[in-house]
């Protein structure tokens, strides 16, 4: 589609200025330069291209030049200097207007993202604004959040690297990539799970081994913030539970919120089952870590000993000590479930570092 032709009104009194320069050899005045800047700004705001604006002035220069040089004896250098001044001024005004527009767009985008992820603003109005940024909130969306060793902003190299990879692979898809509170955030329709999987892969690599969490899909403007909160909860859970998976899915971690839904009951279980471990030499922490490693290894003694850098004999001694203190045998299937649930609860409640 051809670009719209820029009207001659964006020349102002350019031809008259050239005639005076050709006659006197003077340079452009401050007022004339300000007028050029204003015309450049107006052209940018009207949606014209800088190339078209420069072309209009060069065409006017070719038209006015023969008349001016035929009637006057000013040097060619003076006219060329005036043309250079005029073009530089209109370009400056044009670029200022563009930078202002970009800043306004960035501010509007940031405000929209904050409203979307905090669940603020009228939901109907939020859905209308979302279309401007490529989202249709009437559909179900899921949110992935990536965290790394540093806090990121949208202008940092890591987010730009991930965005470039996503756009190269999924150009035209309705995806929103941003940052929030130092983390990378990707919002994509639930019908396109490959987008978030690819985001997770790229973000994990770009953050040099960071963790990515993916919330469950939810419909509507409120669904985005719900999925975002689930992803944040998954990251927090990974930190407290020492989960080593690089990519976590909230749908796979639903058992943990269930376990802590009755916090008081879980605290009672931890105190009654694991409280006696505090009587051990060195406190409860070493034996609690032994139990956690034992359960994580599928209750296989040799694998547990390897993970803890212990001999099997030393591990067996620790398990026997746990049995003596708690009255529950980790190797007994009847006791194992209660002990394992208590260990999970201790991780979730940050016991014994925090009093219950």
From TrEMBL:
CdaR GGDEF-like domain boundaries: 119-237
Coiled-coil ranges per UniProt: none
InterPro entries, A to Z: CdaR-like_regulators, CdaR_GGDEF, PucR_C-HTH_dom, PucR_C-HTH_sf
Location of the PucR C-terminal helix-turn-helix domain: 287-343
Pfam families per record: GGDEF_2, HTH_30
Protein family membership: Belongs to the CdaR family.
UniProt protein name: PucR family transcriptional regulator
